[in-house]
Specification:
Structural class: alpha+beta
Shape: flat
Number of helices: 2
Helix content: 10-25%
Strand content: over 45%
Order of helices and strands: HEEEEEEEEEEH
Oligomer: single chain
Number of strands: 10
Length: about 180
């Protein structure tokens, strides 16, 4: 009887555990953007919106017809709405430096007495190509400007780098 009870308990716990073990996030293509990195329309940026047990998040890749390279993901499970990809662009320096992939994401916060507005996140990736495309995350050069909030939080708050043009102006001066 004890052996029978232990076997049933093992089977039930295995079924519960296996559902979490084999659960896959569901991802669907959200946006596809043509990029001009080394020549016109040589790469594409693929943005996927994925659903997990925690909520929605974004997953992005850069690729050509042969191969896709993982760029990164963006999530903010505390936000009111699903995260958004606002913009993607390539920055070409005048100083013979490698090009930079710029991504700009946001999440909307609301419905609390203290805070309402958008949180922005900028990511920068230096692009190198030997035989394969290589992305190096260099977001740290922005310092505390990599993220920011615009909205109401004990008064009106503004974030300067919520557009690609503002980010490129900063890169012109600092990259």
């Amino acid at each position: 009887m004890k052996k029978y009870f232990t076997s049933i308990l093992f089977v039930i716990s295995s079924l519960i555990y296996s559902q979490n073990l084999f659960a896959k996030d569901q991802c669907n293509i959200d946006q596809k953007v043509n990029l001009n990195i080394f020549k016109k329309n040589d790469y594409k940026f693929y943005n996927y919106i994925c659903e997990s047990s925690e909520g929605s998040y974004l997953k992005s890749y850069v690729g050509d017809q042969e191969k896709k390279v993982f760029v990164g993901d963006y999530s903010d499970f505390a936000a009111k709405e699903s995260p958004k990809l606002l913009a993607v662009s390539i920055y070409q320096s005048n100083k013979r430096k490698p090009p930079i992939l710029i991504t700009l994401n946001s999440s909307y916060y609301c419905c609390t007495p203290q805070i309402e507005g958008e949180i922005y996140q900028v990511n920068l990736y230096q692009i190198n190509k030997n035989k394969i495309l290589n992305l190096k995350n260099i977001t740290n050069i922005l310092g505390s400007n990599a993220e920011g909030f615009e909205g109401i939080a004990e008064g009106k708050v503004y974030y300067k780098y919520k557009t690609i043009s503002e980010i490129k102006k900063w890169l012109d001066k600092n990259y």
